[in-house]
Amino acid sequence: MRVQQHSRLKVGFTPLEGRAKRRHPHKSGLLLTGFTLVELLVVISILALLMGILMPVLSRVREAGYSMRCMSNLRGIALAGQIYTHENDGKFPPFRMSTRSATDPTVFVNKYGREKPRWPWFLDYGIGPVINPAPYVKNPGDTFGDSDTLIMTNDFFMCTSFDHPGFDKRDIRNGSYGYNYQYLGNSRVKNGRYKNFPVNQVRIQRPTETVIVADSRGIKDERIHGYTLDPPKLARSAGAEFFARYTKPTYQEQHSPADARHSGKVNVAFVDGHTEKKSLRELGYVQDADGWVIADHPEGSNRLFSGTGCDER
Predict the structure, then answer these.
(1) Considering only CA atoms, which of 83, 85, 105, 103 is closest in space to residue 94?
(2) What pTM does this model have?
(3) Contact (Cβ atoms closer than 8 angstroms) between residue 95 and residue 181
(4) Where do the DSSP E strands lie in 131-265?
(5) What is the pLDDT of residue 42?
């Protein structure tokens, strides 16, 4: 019976035939099968080729997902901005409120206990505070400021694609999004007066063509002041004398433009609440041969920042 079964196993083609066979050096009669070196090299080459093809595709898919999430964040922020203007007699928020008024130097503290709050603190409608105050405000009258924390805890204000070494995408000062402050809420004070604040929405003639918030990069070399989004040119008609980093001597060192971090595009939210992808050129910026934005270039245009659909004259 065993002989017959053994005979049947020898009949026909077996999966192991055609493979390289070798005898075990210590066990007579035992055949071992396996891949040859050539076969292994072919398999490795095919896998490497497939990885080379798939990795860029997977990277683009991942970036597309990040970009969609960023767009969703911007829509939420833009909606909060609309609610803010509705609740505040049509006025846009300041880019930062450092004092109680232009004539009262007392430090301004918001309802969450934050000292000198930046614009994200004012856009909490429907999305909550930009930083959870609970760890810092434990008793009535407690306050906290930049020295306590700059890290945002609210994901609405964080762009996943923000990737600048040495900076945290959750940094409220130097992180993901910038506000069109020169035209919508320049609350810097000079001679007892705000530069351009408050700004009422009736002044915005083209809400569908006026940026409110966008991906921001910060100053060219320092990568700071990302929360202030500078237009291509100085908003002289709105009283601006400096760009974001006003303590620096030149416009180029002060300028905080948009950041084309999404496959060469900038995610932008407009005053009317819609969002778009725009190139730096479409936003009116002029770039040098290395791709850096040139501040206040005469060929630049503030048309999508001014609120009127017109450039600075």
Answers:
(1) 85
(2) 0.82
(3) yes
(4) 177-179, 186-190, 193-196, 211-215
(5) 84
